[in-house]
UniProtKB/TrEMBL annotation:
Protein name, UniProt field: 2-hydroxyacid dehydrogenase
Ranges where the D-isomer specific 2-hydroxyacid dehydrogenase catalytic domain occurs: 8-327
Entry's Gene Ontology molecular function annotations: D-lactate dehydrogenase (NAD+) activity
Species in which this protein is naturally found: Streptomyces huasconensis
Residues covered by the D-isomer specific 2-hydroxyacid dehydrogenase NAD-binding domain: 110-296
InterPro entries in the cross-refs: D-isomer_2_OHA_DH_cat_dom, D-isomer_DH_CS, D-isomer_DH_CS1, D-isomer_DH_NAD-bd, D-LDH-like, NAD(P)-bd_dom_sf
Pfam family, one: 2-Hacid_dh_C
Keywords annotated in UniProt: NAD, Oxidoreductase
Amino acid sequence: MEILAFGVQSDEKPLMEKAFEGHHDVRCLDVFLNEDTAPIAAGYEIISSSVNATLNNRVLQTLAAGGTQLIAQRSTGFNNIDLQVAERLGLTVARVSSYSPYSVAEFAWTLAMAVNRRIVRASNRTRDFDFRLDGLMGRDLRGRTVGVLGTGRIGEAFTRIAHGFGMRLLGWDAVPNPACVELGMEYVEKDRLLAEADLVSLHVPLLPSTQHLIDADALRVMKDDAILVNSSRGGLIDTEALVVELRAGRFTGVGLDVYEAEAGLFFLDKSLEVVADDTLARLVTFPNVVVTSHQAYYTVDAVAQIIETTVQNVLDYTEGRRSENVLVPAVAKT
């Protein structure tokens, strides 16, 4: 059987082909799955989608009409998939429940340190042989307070690094993580965390209950000189409200690896086009903001684990097994 994989980056393609070798053939496409590209999947029983795919009602209808039975998403998040429609159409949907938490946690710290120590600005200056230090002053993190919103596997990995820096640890989650408590983390209400933290990092999934978790009210509670990092999902932050606060001169730095309207932008080369997203255009102009294109997960270790799990999800489907990765069950063909 041949699997059709959408949104495969050039670095991922050899890993994908090697992982499927001896199991199934795989056809890798660099285009993302959306309403325009969904017809390409006609005749493919199994397709694999990437995190920036659009799997709404229309796309799912097209896939089902073309004979698709399994959607194997290569990500942990699945907020881009209309699961109710998929279930109604009899589609099986699987995801990657977990992969290396260190890739995202370490990148979140990369963003935090980049904005704290003005790394991007310093690098740009030295390229022009401007070696002044004016405007590059950062601050020690040791002894300061970090607030971690979401203390699952990634949040825990982030917390362990914060503990290594010698920071005071505040956490917010529905259920405390014993490993974080052992490190000395104090679990508090969200507003208290935001009010006391010098660095706030987001590590919660995007759900209806967490949409705009950091809204205008939450931003106003934060310290004027706080650092805000989001390496989870763009919809966790009300970006319009964030721009308002940045225009008012607030925050030492903001590091964003995700953006709530990133679909159709991130992972693509838009350098020769006029980007019509005014909010993003304003966001990237602030000297204390660093925006990257959803690359926190992008290490050879994490990507290899994601692909290995995706292959296993395909094998489980074709061999009639179920696993915790299945979001929407359906009867598999054998």
